[in-house]
Amino acid sequence: MTRSQLIAEIAERADLKRATVRKVLDAFATVAAEELAGDPPGEVPLGRELGKLVVVERAARKGRNPATGETIEIPARKAVRFRESRALREALS
């Protein structure tokens, strides 16, 4: 599904204009980014049926350059992960 398709589907189901849905999605993205980048990082709930976005710490590790085969150090970093709800997990299985 593309972003345009998502906007169209939400607009149709919620009986809203596409421009309104686009503004809501843009505002959601801004709020989510601010919350996840905060200190300390927060969580962004997406509803009981869906799950939430959380920040996780990724440990430093060794990797390999596929072109040269050279071993490189990949530094530790933060990443955003989606944690699905129990309802979604059960619906998918």
From TrEMBL:
Asked if the record carries the keyword Ligase, the reply is no
Provide a GO CC annotation, any one.
cytosol
Signal peptide region: none
Which branch of life, at top level?
A: Bacteria
Key words of the record: DNA replication, DNA-binding, Late protein
Which GO BP terms sit in this record? DNA replication
Q: What family does the database annotate?
A: Belongs to the bacterial histone-like protein family.
Q: What is this protein called?
A: Viral histone-like protein
Instruction: Name its species.
Output: Thermosulfurimonas dismutans
The taxonomy runs: Bacteria, Pseudomonadati, Thermodesulfobacteriota, Thermodesulfobacteria, Thermodesulfobacteriales
